Amino acid sequence: MSQAEVAPVRAGRSRSPLWTFGILRSELATTLRRGRTLALLGVLAAVPVLIGIAVRIQTSDGSPAGPPDGGGPAFLSQVTNNGLFLVFAALAVTLPVFLPLTVGVVAGDAIAGEASAGTLRYLLVAPAGRTRLLLTKYTATLAFCLTATLVVAVSALAVGALLFPVGEVTTISGTRIGVGEGLLRAGLIAVTVAASLIGFAALGLFISTLAGSGIAAMAATVGVLITVQILDTIPQLSGIHPYLFPHYWLSFADLLRDPVYWDEIVKNLGLQGLYAAVFGSAAWARFAAKDITA
Amino acid sequence: MAPNDSAETTGSATSTTAARRKAARYVVPVAVAGVAAATIGLVPALADSGDPELPKISAQQLIEKIAASDTQQLSGTVRVSTDLGIPSLGGLAESFAQSAGGEQGGSSAAPKDRLTELASGTHTLRVAADGPDKQRLSILDSAAEYSVIRNGDQLWAYDSKSDEAYHATTDKAPDAGKHEGHTAPEGVPTTPKALAEQALKAADSTTSVTVDGTAQVAGRDAYKLVIKPKQGGSTIGAITVAVDAKNGVPLKFTLSPSSGGKAVIDAGFTSVDFARPAASSFTFTPPKGTKVTEADEAKAEKNVEKGPEGLTGLDKIAGGGGAKVIGEGWGAIYAIEAPAGEGLPSSEKNADVPPAAQQFLDSFGDKVTGKFGSGTVFKTRLVNALMTDDGKVYVGAVTKDALVKAADNAAN
Predict the structure, then answer these.
(1) Residues spanned by CATH 3.30.310 within chain B?
(2) Whole-model pTM above 0.95?
(3) Which residues in chain B are classed under CATH 2.50.20.10?
(4) What is the ipTM of this complex?
(5) What is the distance between the terminal CA atoms of chain B, rounded to a whole angstrom?
(6) Do A282 and B143 touch (CB under 8 A)?
């Protein structure tokens, strides 16, 4: 009796890397194949299309894109000269709201959604352990961050190449780089943008371990996002700004300077790592000891 | 049955242990946050500790070192903080320029407009130079950059935010010095070197120049040259220039007011590299579709330059008619007959200034009275001005009392 009980556990432990990969793969498949996720990705893909068509229509009579004083979203005025800039403009437009919103939905749903659907206990029956399940959920959320960013970037690249000329890129410092390097930097920017969401994803996961229902967790996560972004715009609070997770989000644009200005990008990544460590461990502390009732 | 019994009897004990274990887990995130906070607080303090040990050097030797410095190539990042004690000089200067200079062509890439921004707030700049012919200066903005690029007789300015460019062709050699003035209005810190030269020019019998220890600037060992006015009455407390111990390049410039507090101007390299910058840094070809504003001709440009830009206004007014200088050195006061003075936003000059605007101006000033009659003192942390009711203006980097005294003496 006892031998029979022990045997599968041992087998599971000895195959642990495969096991992790197994639950990760199934988790990724469930997350990405969910209708809700696909709808979110569809909305993200539509944003660059909208921007591209709007700029194209506005500039068809030769007038410059955006307000004459250079207001509006970053990089919008350069889009007509070079379709590649649509990638940067689209990421600059989606990063403050759309991207974190979708990440908030996925991260907030990660644990709380399973709990409210009553499937969390079945997941925990599998001999994977709570810590590993949490890590898998977090990894799946991060994979979604990267996927979402790439969806925006690829859609923007396609629309930009279709509607506008693509050629040598003039960096925001005024120097020129070739198309190949421009594409390389666009890829680097997409990865940086995805990495900018690491901290927020951890925060969302933590909230997800607190809430009882998926909807509540999503709403709370998005609420925190909006609150923090408002705090980030109040000049009287400038003392706390460097510690707010969205504060350095736009630093991805520094990759378009020549030479690249790394200071703020490094600060951004460090801050995201810090948020991931604090809220990741908080999520673990909560989830590993939580009573699973549903 | 038996297991259930034991669970019930040990129930209370288990729950307290479980609660304790639960709480203990939260130590991890708290510890992570604590360690991070401590690291953020401690690392700069540790990095700051210990000024470099360098052989003693006299002020004379240090100034010679600066003069002998033949560094032609450098690139680096400069951080400029300016706190003149004016709410927002950018907006103010703009309104001055509009009232004084009128139409300006309306390009957001015109260098003058953009570089006056530096006169207030904190900015990050990038500078690069390769010999006397090639320089570039960029103001880093959020997701945008404003660059002024000079390559021989070509002067380009590019504003990536509005995607507009500004182009001027300049006469080559004789104008070289002047073009520094074009790219940056005097008095606005651009490179620590220009600032140091300006400060040292003033050094004479009225000034004490000493070497005061060493510092680390942008990871390089530097001597600190301290310049102080000998007479009282100046608003300038001290000017500190950090000079690279190896090659004599000024790395940091700090102007502290005599009233104490935060530095009025603090400009220094945060990183610097004395290797030759990439040649591509100094070439600019406007991207297709970019709006390019040509500087019409040198003269038109000079007219535009005439708008008062921060401290330059003072030099220019002093040079023009109707102004005389009272005192010398740091305590020098410029006395100007306001109706003849250019570019000051006084109600005397424009009779049709709306009363609201006049009120706005008055709200900046303090009313003072003396032998000269009465007037208004406009104060900043660096420059003060006394505008008497009979239309005389006294301006200088001196305290309010010194201005009143000068006005009294003039009235006698």
Answers:
(1) 312-411
(2) no
(3) 59-305
(4) 0.78
(5) 112
(6) no
